[in-house]
Design goal:
The structure holds 2 protein chains of 2 kinds.
Chain A: E1 39-44, H1 58-67, E2 72-74, E3 80-82, E4 85-90, E5 95-100, H2 114-125, E6 170-174, E7 177-181, H3 189-192, E8 206-208, E9 211-212, E10 226-228, E11 237-242, E12 255-260, H4 264-272, E13 278-279, H5 290-294, E14 298-310, H6 321-329, H7 333-339, E15 346-347, H8 372-382, E16 387-393, H9 399-413, E17 416-422, H10 425-433, E18 440-445, H11 452-460, H12 474-484, H13 489-506, E19 509-521, E20 525-526, E21 542-543
Parallel strand pairs in A: 1-12, 16-17, 16-18
Antiparallel strand pairs in A: 2-3, 4-5, 5-7, 6-7, 8-9, 10-11, 11-12, 13-19, 14-18, 14-19, 15-19, 20-21
Chain B: H1 2-30, H2 34-39, H3 46-55, H4 62-78, H5 91-126, H6 131-145, H7 148-162, H8 176-206, H9 209-216, H10 221-251, H11 253-258, H12 264-273, H13 277-305
Helix pairs in contact in B: 1-13, 5-6, 5-8, 5-10, 6-8, 7-8, 8-10, 9-10, 10-13, 12-13
The chains are: A alpha+beta, B mainly alpha.
């Protein structure tokens, strides 16, 4: 039932722009030195919410990353390391003891204690609060007691009050220590804790236990390196300034203006005229000119997104793995990336992204090699359908590559192929869920936390939250389950890799592309980095005066 | 005159309820799954779905559900409450922040249309067939032929980015200067139409009997054009500009997007895209009022411009 973030980078591009280093312009005339008090501007879209447990999109996440400190962050190998946590330990992978570092305070002066975490998590998990990221807490014991099902579906009756409003798995030990008991062992729990749903909230957030104060979201109080300046100016900007009492690594700028843009092209125009400092996503239409517009201020870095074509395994026409393999072999991924995406993405030949530990190159094997002659004979031998349909959501900018793919299938397999646009993603999902004949359909995925499980579990296990294509293989399910409860992350990876090999054989989906951050910045900033979650690294960025 | 205005005001009430009902019905009929639309491509948790369904009465479907939701909406509206958008922000707040900037933009647009369009139109009308006339005809043809979706990014790129004469984007609290370029882009379409309307109307009146009479009386040309011709020629132009102000308010969708101005047009576009029924109906209700008021003002202006037009 729970869901991870299923998203296509193309659909709602959310970005951040770094702030204008307006202050530094007068003094030493562009010497290239860093100005620690300057403000940088970063482009974002209008965040949907700024309560950590209700924030599931990139723009909100970018703002929260300035205002909050996570328990753990990820190192260069994408393994978790403690930030606000002193230690996160478990002997049995079920009961985890989290010790907090002393000295962290919220921006109103309140100390960060174990209660700050327990209250925030309980608020997030309590179903009637309707928090978008509540499913992150489902592994914690007692989560189900905070849920309630409507007795008649979405019908007229109101769902009953849940049995409890706090999770039994959260126990305070002392002011800086608490334990989390999971309902089943999970070796990678520590990895999960880096997600923004696990941020703490101060007492000042609540008007009564479990009730968030009106207006708190617009002037949110966090425990991070920056505090909010004024309030969230909807559709305009969120400004933050350095929080001087922050005990962690200090940022190298005085503040950040998260400027809200409705269109990436507007932000791009601002960056090339130095009106805006960072645009974390270059609009597709500008990819051809970006190298000449920005020079080496246009950069790329790995991102976690994964784009694929799914087969309706419930449809007899696509039920044979041989048919699916032949279709996959008939697609020239590199050509499409070059012609349609202008090299802004990378070909995918594995089922998990290169950004997670345990990734292996080309796990898909021969099935993802472009081989039109072999594909054609295999397709004919397996008796694939004479007409292929590829469904996609028309609002996400997918038409070009779907049409290109179709053309390749026409040429290489000798079949008829059409791209069928549904108005919105919801319409596509609706049809798929009702098992209406949609043919193949496109899907995308962005990870929540760097783990192979985050790619395999939701997408391919029998009851996976985003397994829309009805793929089911008990052996695969068992391997993922063993991975989840394995003793160490390394043992878990072995199980996940074995599971991935099954996918290569069954091929329920065709891996197509891994995403990349394509970002640009103005001449007023340096050391711009974008992480796997498409966020600008706010401790690294510097303003050039 | 007074009775006429009262009657028009009463008609406005009817028109208002009629249009909101239609817009509400259209939004209701076209609504697929607004909760999913809000979430984009991310699956929605059952808890969140239940919460939003409850909050926005999304479980009320069918004809009965429609009237339930419509009357709920109208009831709140009469109490001065526009309700909440699906993003859980108060629509009145959203409109009140978006309104001023769009109004400024529309006023700049209409000012551009009046200052340049009407003036050039008068000149072209007087010198019909001359070089100026032909040049403006050609230019307006060009402007009318280029859609805003092309014109706005081009203006932004050349005047904003390449030449640097204007800031490329305006933002939420723009200065007058920053709004100038989007205002000109927005106004250019009305400018072309206003110019052609004025030109035709002036050219026609220049040939009329009363102008001939005035000329033979020995009146100076300036007085003939400034008082006699202009007064009569402006009636169609005023009609056009009055309605155009309403158009500019809502029609700023593309311009606002290109120049990053979070105004009414942008909010309307977002509402439609995310199937945010309450937001769309809220904005449209306000736009309907703007149109009705503009129309009323235009009709009253008729009487001022031409005393022969009397309303009983």
């Amino acid at each position: 039932m729970q869901v991870r973030r299923l998203a296509a980078w193309a659909a709602v591009p959310l970005v951040a722009t770094l702030g204008l280093a307006a202050c530094g312009s007068g003094d030493d005339g562009g010497s290239g030195e860093s100005n620690p008090n300057a403000t940088v501007s970063i482009q974002i879209g209008e965040p949907q919410h700024l309560i950590p447990t209700n924030t599931t999109e990139t723009s909100g996440n970018q703002v929260l990353s300035a205002l909050f400190t996570p328990l753990v962050d990820y190192d260069a190998q994408n393994k978790p390391y403690e930030v606000q946590a002193e230690s996160i330990q478990s002997t049995d992978n079920t009961t985890w003891t989290i010790k907090l570092k002393d000295g962290y305070t919220f921006h109103n002066g309140e100390k960060v204690t174990s209660d700050s975490y327990i209250n925030a998590w309980n608020y997030g998990a309590y179903a009637p609060n309707g928090q978008g990221a509540s499913y992150f807490f489902e592994k914690i014991a007692g989560y189900t007691d905070l849920q309630a099902t409507d007795p008649d579906g979405d019908g007229p009756q109101k769902a009953p009050e849940p049995k409890a409003n706090t999770m039994s798995g959260l126990k305070k030990v002392d002011d800086l220590t608490f334990t989390v008991t999971l309902s089943a062992p999970y070796s990678e729990f520590k990895t999960m804790l880096g997600y923004n749903a696990f941020y703490p909230l101060p007492n000042a957030a609540f008007s009564a236990p479990g009730v968030i104060k009106d207006g708190f979201e617009d002037a949110i109080i966090g425990d991070g390196p920056f505090k909010i300046k004024g309030t969230w100016q909807h559709d305009a900007k969120v400004e933050v300034e350095r929080y001087d009492a922050f005990p962690g690594e200090k940022p190298k700028v005085g503040g950040v203006e998260f400027r809200i843009y409705q269109q990436l092209t507007a932000a791009y125009a601002d960056v090339i005229s130095d009106n805006l400092d960072v645009v974390p996503t270059i609009p597709t239409e500008n990819l051809t000119s970006v190298a000449s517009d920005l020079g080496d201020r246009f950069q790329q870095s790995p991102a976690s997104s994964f784009q694929f074509l799914a087969f309706p395994t419930f449809d007899p026409a696509y039920s044979k793995p041989e048919v699916r393999k032949a279709i996959s072999e008939a697609i020239d991924r590199d050509e499409i990336i070059k012609s349609v995406f202008k090299d802004s993405q990378q070909s995918a030949r594995s089922f998990v992204s290169p950004v997670v530990a345990g990734y292996r190159d080309n796990t898909c094997g021969a099935a993802c090699e472009f081989n039109p002659t072999k594909a054609k004979s295999e397709y004919a031998a397996a008796g694939g359908p004479a007409k292929i349909t590829i469904s996609y959501n028309g609002d996400g900018g997918h038409k070009d590559w779907v049409d290109a793919t179709c053309n390749q299938l026409k040429t290489n397999l000798g079949v008829d192929c059409v791209g069928a646009a549904e108005p919105k993603f919801a319409d596509l999902l609706d049809k798929v869920e009702k098992k209406q004949p949609v043919g193949m359909f496109r899907l995308g995925w962005i990870m929540d936390y760097p783990s192979m499980e985050n790619y395999l579990g939701p997408l391919y296990t029998t009851n996976g939250s985003s397994n829309y294509y009805g793929y089911s293989n008990p052996q695969f399910d068992a391997l993922v389950k063993e991975g989840v409860s394995a003793g160490t992350p390394d043992e878990a990876i072995k199980k996940y890799q074995a599971a991935e090999d099954i996918l290569a054989n069954d091929l329920p989906v065709i891996p197509l592309r891994f995403g990349q951050n394509n970002f640009g910045y103005s001449s007023k900033v340096k050391n711009v980095e974008i992480d796997l979650f498409q966020r600008v690294n706010l401790t690294k960025i510097e303003a050039v005066s | 005159m007074f009775r006429y205005i009262v009657r028009r005001l009463l008609q406005m009430v009817l028109a208002f309820f009629g249009t909101t009902l239609i817009v509400y019905a259209l939004m209701f009929a076209g609504q697929g799954d607004p909760i999913q639309a809000l979430a984009g491509e991310r699956p929605v948790t059952p808890a969140q779905r239940a919460y939003l369904t409850e909050t926005f009465h999304l479980d009320k479907t069918g004809v009965g559900g429609f009237f339930y939701r419509y009357f709920d909406y109208i009831g709140n509206l009469l109490r001065g409450d526009l309700g909440m958008s699906l993003t859980q922000r108060k629509i009145s707040d959203m409109i009140s922040t978006a309104w001023p900037v769009t109004l400024k933009l529309a006023l700049i647009g209409i000012a551009v249309a009046i200052i340049f369009g009407v003036t050039a139109g008068v000149i072209a009308g007087i010198r019909r067939g001359g070089f100026f006339d032909n040049a403006t005809l050609l230019l307006t043809l060009l402007v009318l032929g280029i859609p805003t979706i092309v014109l706005a990014p081009l203006a932004q790129y050349f005047l904003g980015v390449k030449l640097g004469w204007f800031p490329p984007t305006a933002g939420a609290q723009p200065s007058f200067y920053a709004l100038l370029l989007p205002g000109i882009v927005l106004g250019s379409l009305s400018l072309a139409t206003a110019l052609r309307l004025t030109r035709t109307s002036v050219a026609e009146n220049m040939r009329s009997d009363y102008v001939r009479t005035a000329k033979s009386k020995g009146l100076r040309r300036r007085r003939i054009v400034g008082v006699h011709v202009l007064r009569n020629s402006l009636i169609p132009v005023v009609t056009f500009l009055g309605v155009e102000l309403g158009n500019l308010m809502s029609g700023a969708i593309i311009t606002e997007g290109v120049f990053n101005i979070p105004g009414i047009g942008f909010n309307l576009f977002r509402g439609i895209r995310t199937e945010d029924g309450p937001l769309v109906v809220g904005i449209v209700s306000i736009l309907v009022v703007v149109y009705l008021v503009c129309n009323l003002v235009v009709d009253v202006l008729y009487a001022v411009l031409d005393p022969r037009i009397r309303y009983v």
